[in-house]
Amino acid sequence: MGIMDISKVVQNPTTSELYEYALQPVHRASLGDHTVFDTTITDTGALSVSSGVRTGRSPKDKRIVLDETTKDVIWWGDVNMPIEPIGYARNR
What we know:
The protein is α+β, with helices and mostly antiparallel strands. The protein has helices at residues 15-22, 85-91; strands at 39-41, 47-49, 63-65, 81-83.
């Protein structure tokens, strides 16, 4: 695998442009024996994307802002890791 071809970059697309792009047949993929990734519109109008069998989360990437509101009510540890408000603002 390498870097994807990004010859066409769309900046600030509208919601309808995002839907049109996501629903193109080219975005259907099959990885060997894995489930075909599929994009549909739900009955509520939301865009729904199936990520196949590899749907795991990255709990070690979870950060919660450490401030006066959260410092004594969050169970801090390997999963709930603190981030300073300035770090959150920078990443947001």
